[in-house]
Amino acid sequence: MRTTVILAAALMATACDTPDSQQADRAAADGAMTDDNMMADGQPGAMAAGDTMAGENVPTDAYVTRAAMSDMYEIEAGKLAVKNGESAETRRFGQMMVNDHTKSSEDMKSVLASAMPNATPPARLDAEHQQMIDRLKAANGAAFDREYQTQQMMAHRKALALHEGYAANGDNTELKAFAQKVTPVIRKHHDQVNTMAGATGAAAAGANTGSTTGQANNRQGTTNQSGAAGTPPGQ
């Protein structure tokens, strides 16, 4: 009788493990693996640091305001980089920003004089850009270089999207031609600042690695000396 009960229980367990239930288990496991992979790779749609934003489709008035604001900020930030940058590379990049954005500002004013004579570009920085300048003024040495590079990466991503968008979709012919002309210059800035920031990060990582290795060697040397001091003579 006992043997019959055991056999019946075994048959029921086998019957429950049908192909359908096995497929459901596998589907659940696959779903869990997919979720884990998404968590490991980061949030869906996250943009890599070196990626550019998609070109924006903005009205002409907004394009004029934002392009003028970008030039004013880049000129002022570039002057600070020339004056306060710790590395020669930061100072050179800052001077290039002053030169190139002074030219693009003058070029746009010339275009506006004929295309939109009643346009009034902003005469001073808005609150967002003024805060960025204030952060640069408060930084010194390597901290200045890091802040400047961080600001420049984001500023040129935004500027590139702005000019590319208007170059493709702008409704003012003369300003559209201006955007097409200035876009390669902004892209060059964008690529250079990302290269510069990458080199700075690699150098910092190397310095940290060297410092950590040196500390480990010092600790090992201290341990060896302590062990040697405690060894009885003749052993």
Topology, please?
Blueprint lengths: L1 H15 L2 H23 L18 H25 L3 H28 L11 H12 L2 H29 L3 H57 L6
Describe the structure.
The chain has a domain at 60-202: Ferritin, core subunit, four-helix bundle (Ferritin, Up-down Bundle), CATH 1.20.1260.10. Helix content is 80%, strand content 0%. The chain is built from 7 helices and no strands. It has helices at 2-16, 19-41, 60-84, 88-115, 127-138, 141-169, 173-229. Helix 3 runs antiparallel to helix 6 and helix 4 (88-115) runs antiparallel to helix 7. The chain is elongated and about 70 Å long.
Task: Give the gist of this structure.
This protein has 235 residues and is mostly helical. Helices cover 80% and strands 0% of the residues. It has seven helices and no strands.
Question: What is the architecture of the domain at 60-202 at the second tier of CATH?
Answer: Up-down Bundle
pLDDT < 50 runs, ≥5 residues: 1-52
Major sheet characteristics = none
CATH superfamily caption of the domain at 60-202: Ferritin, core subunit, four-helix bundle
Number of DSSP helical runs: 7
CATH class of the domain at 60-202: Mainly Alpha
Q: What is the CATH T-level topology of the domain at 60-202?
A: Ferritin
> Which structural class matches the secondary elements?
mainly alpha
Shape: elongated
Helical proportion, percent range: over 70%
Please tell me how large the radius of gyration is: 31 Å
Q: Approximately what portion of the residues adopt beta-strand conformation? A: under 5%
Topology as a string of helices (H) and strands (E)? HHHHHHH
Through-space gap between termini = 76 Å
